[in-house]
Amino acid sequence: xxxxxxxxxxxxxxxxxxxxxxxxxxxxxxxxxxxxxxxxxxxxxxxxxxxxxxxxxxxxxxxxxxxxxxxxxxxxxxxxxxxxxxxxxxxxxxxxxxxxxxxxxxxxxxxxxxxxxxxxxxxxxxxxxxxxxxxxxxxxxxxxx
Amino acid sequence: xxxxxxxxxxxxxxxxxxxxxxxxxxxxxxxxxxxxxxxxxxxxxxxxxxxxxxxxxxxxxxxxxxxxxxxxxxxxxxxxxxxxxxx
Lengths: 145, 87
Description:
The structure holds two protein chains of two kinds. Chain A has three helices and eleven strands; from the N terminus they run E-E-E-E-E-E-H-H-E-E-E-E-E-H.
């Protein structure tokens, strides 16, 4: 079954059911209860979380492990219980991307990642120390050096 | 804003299911205990504010800046077996 989602950025798009993600608590401070995870380009590094109701609410996201191979997400016991994910390794992890003029200036929010399990998503606070604004390419530069 | 004076060990009820307890007062620091249904998210305000602002900034992204960027060469599609576990 396909869902029709309207986006100010991408127009009217048909989204397969498996790409629709419920966020029972929304994203911190910006809300949203249901998002479409859009893969605009198969070979691209980024996807978009497009809100299903608010046409103009969309955030770019990426796979943190592609850029930060040593990244880890730890949850407090309360948080794990709340979202029903005991081990973050069981969930798909995405981080929100802050785009800029140049790729070197992009950053990702490693402090508040998104965990998705069984098509339910939660933005959580990472108990493992991680920056709110990690330069996107810094993890790879560190690894290469 | 409602202002209530409380002593350590005393509590405030918000509705029937949220309990705020003043645990300890030491100098300029107050320790507060909060009991609330699991569906109520609790954050330190400054952390919530920073994440909110970061989300809002991310939501201003222009697709033209982002599309066409390929993932890094050593992309790992699977996480390490220890990913997410504390040391």
